[in-house]
Amino acid sequence: MLAIQVSELRFVTEEGVNVFEGLSFGVPREGFVWVVGPPGSGKTLLLRILLREVQPQGGQILVLGRNVRRVSTKSFQAVRRRVGYLPEDPPILSGRTVRGHLLFKLRALGLHGEEAEDALHRALDLAELKDAAEKRGAELSPLEQKRLGLALALCPHTSLLLCDDPLRGLEPKAQEELLATLERIHQGGVTLLGTAREDALLLARGFAPEPSGKRSLVYLREPVRP
User: Fold this and answer.
1) How many CA atoms lie within 13 A of 146 on its CB side?
2) Domain with CATH 3.40.50.300 in the chain
3) What angle do CA 103, 104, 108 make, to 5 degrees?
4) Are 60 and 7 in contact (CB under 8 A)?
Protein backbone atom coordinates (compact mmCIF):
# COMPACT_ATOMS: atom_id res chain seq x y z
CA MET A 1 0.00 0.00 0.00
CA LEU A 2 1.19 3.51 -0.83
CA ALA A 3 1.20 6.55 1.45
CA ILE A 4 1.67 8.81 -1.59
CA GLN A 5 0.85 8.03 -5.21
CA VAL A 6 1.53 10.56 -7.96
CA SER A 7 0.31 9.61 -11.43
CA GLU A 8 0.90 11.56 -14.65
CA LEU A 9 1.33 14.86 -12.81
CA ARG A 10 1.29 17.92 -15.06
CA PHE A 11 2.05 21.48 -14.00
CA VAL A 12 2.64 24.53 -16.20
CA THR A 13 3.41 27.97 -14.75
CA GLU A 14 1.52 31.13 -15.73
CA GLU A 15 4.54 32.01 -17.86
CA GLY A 16 4.15 28.78 -19.79
CA VAL A 17 7.06 26.88 -18.19
CA ASN A 18 6.37 23.15 -18.17
CA VAL A 19 7.63 22.03 -14.74
CA PHE A 20 6.04 18.57 -14.61
CA GLU A 21 4.85 16.49 -17.54
CA GLY A 22 3.78 12.95 -16.73
CA LEU A 23 5.60 12.64 -13.39
CA SER A 24 4.68 9.39 -11.64
CA PHE A 25 6.04 7.77 -8.48
CA GLY A 26 4.91 6.23 -5.22
CA VAL A 27 5.96 6.28 -1.58
CA PRO A 28 5.15 3.02 0.25
CA ARG A 29 3.64 3.06 3.71
CA GLU A 30 6.58 3.23 6.14
CA GLY A 31 8.82 4.08 3.19
CA PHE A 32 11.62 6.66 3.03
CA VAL A 33 11.91 8.30 -0.38
CA TRP A 34 13.89 11.30 -1.66
CA VAL A 35 12.99 13.50 -4.64
CA VAL A 36 16.26 14.75 -6.14
CA GLY A 37 16.70 17.66 -8.52
CA PRO A 38 18.63 20.91 -9.05
CA PRO A 39 17.29 24.34 -8.05
CA GLY A 40 14.24 25.24 -10.11
CA SER A 41 13.28 21.65 -10.90
CA GLY A 42 10.06 21.82 -8.87
CA LYS A 43 10.92 20.12 -5.56
CA THR A 44 9.16 22.65 -3.31
CA LEU A 45 6.31 22.94 -5.81
CA LEU A 46 5.77 19.19 -5.63
CA LEU A 47 5.43 19.29 -1.85
CA ARG A 48 2.99 22.21 -2.09
CA ILE A 49 0.89 20.21 -4.55
CA LEU A 50 0.83 17.27 -2.13
CA LEU A 51 -0.31 19.67 0.62
CA ARG A 52 -3.01 21.07 -1.71
CA GLU A 53 -1.55 24.57 -1.54
CA VAL A 54 -1.16 24.59 -5.34
CA GLN A 55 -3.40 22.93 -7.92
CA PRO A 56 -1.78 21.20 -10.93
CA GLN A 57 -3.31 21.15 -14.40
CA GLY A 58 -3.41 17.37 -14.61
CA GLY A 59 -2.71 14.06 -12.96
CA GLN A 60 -3.85 12.17 -9.89
CA ILE A 61 -2.38 12.69 -6.41
CA LEU A 62 -3.29 10.35 -3.57
CA VAL A 63 -2.13 11.14 -0.03
CA LEU A 64 -2.90 8.57 2.67
CA GLY A 65 -5.47 7.05 0.36
CA ARG A 66 -7.36 10.25 -0.45
CA ASN A 67 -7.47 12.00 -3.81
CA VAL A 68 -5.98 15.43 -3.06
CA ARG A 69 -7.53 17.05 -6.14
CA ARG A 70 -11.08 15.80 -5.56
CA VAL A 71 -11.61 15.27 -1.83
CA SER A 72 -13.67 17.84 0.06
CA THR A 73 -11.96 20.51 2.15
CA LYS A 74 -13.27 18.95 5.36
CA SER A 75 -12.01 15.48 4.42
CA PHE A 76 -8.63 16.84 3.39
CA GLN A 77 -8.25 18.64 6.71
CA ALA A 78 -8.51 15.25 8.44
CA VAL A 79 -5.72 13.96 6.18
CA ARG A 80 -3.65 17.12 6.68
CA ARG A 81 -3.62 16.64 10.46
CA ARG A 82 -1.65 13.43 9.89
CA VAL A 83 0.85 15.04 7.51
CA GLY A 84 3.82 16.96 8.94
CA TYR A 85 5.78 19.50 6.90
CA LEU A 86 9.33 20.71 7.45
CA PRO A 87 9.93 23.85 5.34
CA GLU A 88 13.43 24.71 4.18
CA ASP A 89 13.61 27.46 6.81
CA PRO A 90 11.61 26.39 9.90
CA PRO A 91 9.77 29.27 11.66
CA ILE A 92 11.72 29.61 14.91
CA LEU A 93 11.35 32.44 17.44
CA SER A 94 14.63 33.53 19.00
CA GLY A 95 13.23 34.12 22.50
CA ARG A 96 11.07 31.00 22.81
CA THR A 97 12.41 27.69 24.11
CA VAL A 98 12.21 24.42 22.19
CA ARG A 99 9.62 23.20 24.68
CA GLY A 100 7.74 26.49 24.35
CA HIS A 101 7.56 26.15 20.55
CA LEU A 102 6.06 22.69 20.82
CA LEU A 103 3.58 23.57 23.59
CA PHE A 104 2.40 26.62 21.65
CA LYS A 105 1.56 24.46 18.62
CA LEU A 106 -0.07 21.74 20.70
CA ARG A 107 -2.25 24.22 22.61
CA ALA A 108 -3.25 25.89 19.33
CA LEU A 109 -4.46 22.46 18.19
CA GLY A 110 -6.47 22.05 21.38
CA LEU A 111 -4.19 19.61 23.20
CA HIS A 112 -3.55 20.16 26.91
CA GLY A 113 -2.39 18.28 29.98
CA GLU A 114 -1.18 14.70 29.69
CA GLU A 115 -2.11 14.41 26.01
CA ALA A 116 0.05 17.44 25.15
CA GLU A 117 2.93 16.19 27.28
CA ASP A 118 2.87 12.77 25.60
CA ALA A 119 2.93 14.35 22.14
CA LEU A 120 5.71 16.73 23.20
CA HIS A 121 7.93 13.97 24.57
CA ARG A 122 7.39 11.81 21.49
CA ALA A 123 8.45 14.67 19.22
CA LEU A 124 11.50 15.54 21.35
CA ASP A 125 12.54 11.90 21.41
CA LEU A 126 12.16 11.24 17.68
CA ALA A 127 13.86 14.54 16.74
CA GLU A 128 16.68 13.93 19.26
CA LEU A 129 16.09 17.19 21.08
CA LYS A 130 15.54 16.07 24.68
CA ASP A 131 18.79 17.65 25.85
CA ALA A 132 17.91 20.97 24.16
CA ALA A 133 14.32 21.29 25.40
CA GLU A 134 15.03 24.42 27.46
CA LYS A 135 17.26 26.14 24.90
CA ARG A 136 15.91 29.29 23.28
CA GLY A 137 15.70 29.64 19.53
CA ALA A 138 18.64 32.03 19.42
CA GLU A 139 20.83 29.45 21.18
CA LEU A 140 20.21 26.62 18.74
CA SER A 141 22.80 25.46 16.24
CA PRO A 142 21.74 25.11 12.57
CA LEU A 143 21.35 21.36 13.14
CA GLU A 144 19.23 21.91 16.25
CA GLN A 145 17.06 24.38 14.35
CA LYS A 146 16.33 21.71 11.74
CA ARG A 147 15.57 19.21 14.50
CA LEU A 148 13.17 21.67 16.10
CA GLY A 149 11.46 22.04 12.74
CA LEU A 150 11.14 18.27 12.62
CA ALA A 151 9.75 18.12 16.16
CA LEU A 152 7.12 20.73 15.26
CA ALA A 153 6.21 18.81 12.12
CA LEU A 154 5.79 15.61 14.15
CA CYS A 155 3.23 17.13 16.54
CA PRO A 156 0.81 15.79 17.46
CA HIS A 157 0.09 12.56 15.53
CA THR A 158 2.05 12.68 12.28
CA SER A 159 2.21 9.49 10.22
CA LEU A 160 3.61 11.09 7.03
CA LEU A 161 6.41 13.66 7.04
CA LEU A 162 7.36 15.91 4.11
CA CYS A 163 10.80 17.59 4.33
CA ASP A 164 11.82 20.39 1.97
CA ASP A 165 15.59 20.27 1.30
CA PRO A 166 16.44 19.55 4.96
CA LEU A 167 20.18 19.02 4.30
CA ARG A 168 20.71 22.39 2.65
CA GLY A 169 22.84 24.87 4.62
CA LEU A 170 24.34 22.27 6.94
CA GLU A 171 28.00 21.27 7.22
CA PRO A 172 28.80 17.69 6.07
CA LYS A 173 28.96 16.34 9.64
CA ALA A 174 25.63 17.97 10.50
CA GLN A 175 24.11 16.54 7.32
CA GLU A 176 25.13 13.06 8.45
CA GLU A 177 23.65 13.67 11.90
CA LEU A 178 20.38 15.00 10.50
CA LEU A 179 20.10 11.99 8.21
CA ALA A 180 20.54 9.78 11.28
CA THR A 181 17.71 11.71 12.97
CA LEU A 182 15.48 11.22 9.93
CA GLU A 183 16.29 7.51 10.01
CA ARG A 184 15.26 7.45 13.68
CA ILE A 185 11.95 9.11 12.82
CA HIS A 186 11.41 6.60 10.03
CA GLN A 187 12.14 3.69 12.36
CA GLY A 188 9.57 5.19 14.72
CA GLY A 189 6.87 4.34 12.18
CA VAL A 190 6.68 7.60 10.20
CA THR A 191 6.67 7.58 6.40
CA LEU A 192 9.09 10.15 4.96
CA LEU A 193 9.36 12.03 1.68
CA GLY A 194 12.29 14.45 1.47
CA THR A 195 13.78 16.61 -1.26
CA ALA A 196 17.46 17.12 -2.02
CA ARG A 197 19.65 18.82 -4.60
CA GLU A 198 22.27 16.08 -4.80
CA ASP A 199 22.22 12.32 -4.40
CA ALA A 200 25.79 11.35 -3.39
CA LEU A 201 25.19 11.24 0.36
CA LEU A 202 21.87 9.47 -0.10
CA LEU A 203 23.34 6.81 -2.35
CA ALA A 204 26.11 6.27 0.20
CA ARG A 205 23.45 5.56 2.84
CA GLY A 206 21.78 2.87 0.76
CA PHE A 207 18.94 4.66 -1.02
CA ALA A 208 18.31 2.96 -4.37
CA PRO A 209 18.53 5.12 -7.54
CA GLU A 210 15.16 4.05 -8.91
CA PRO A 211 11.59 5.19 -8.14
CA SER A 212 10.47 2.02 -6.35
CA GLY A 213 10.99 0.32 -3.04
CA LYS A 214 10.85 1.54 0.53
CA ARG A 215 14.24 3.33 0.37
CA SER A 216 14.61 4.94 -3.03
CA LEU A 217 15.31 8.08 -5.03
CA VAL A 218 13.05 9.85 -7.53
CA TYR A 219 14.87 12.12 -10.00
CA LEU A 220 13.15 15.18 -11.42
CA ARG A 221 15.96 15.42 -13.95
CA GLU A 222 18.43 12.79 -15.07
CA PRO A 223 21.51 12.87 -12.81
CA VAL A 224 24.85 13.80 -14.36
CA ARG A 225 27.45 11.14 -13.62
CA PRO A 226 31.23 11.72 -13.90
Assistant:
1) 21
2) 1-82+159-226
3) 110
4) yes
What three-state secondary structure class fits 176? helix
pLDDT tens digits, one per residue of 90-141:
989 999 999 999 999 999 988 888 999 999 999 999 999 999 999 999 999 9
Residue 1 and residue 45: Cα distance in Å, rounded?
24
Element (H, E) at 123: helix 113-126
Mean pLDDT, residues 149-178 taken together: 96
Give the strand order in the sheet containing 58-63.
18-28, 2-12, 58-63, 66-67
pTM reported for the whole predicted model: 0.93
**Is the CATH number 3.40.50.170 carried by domain 1-82+159-226?**
no
Question: CB-based contacts of 100: which residues, under 8 Å, 6+ apart?
Answer: none
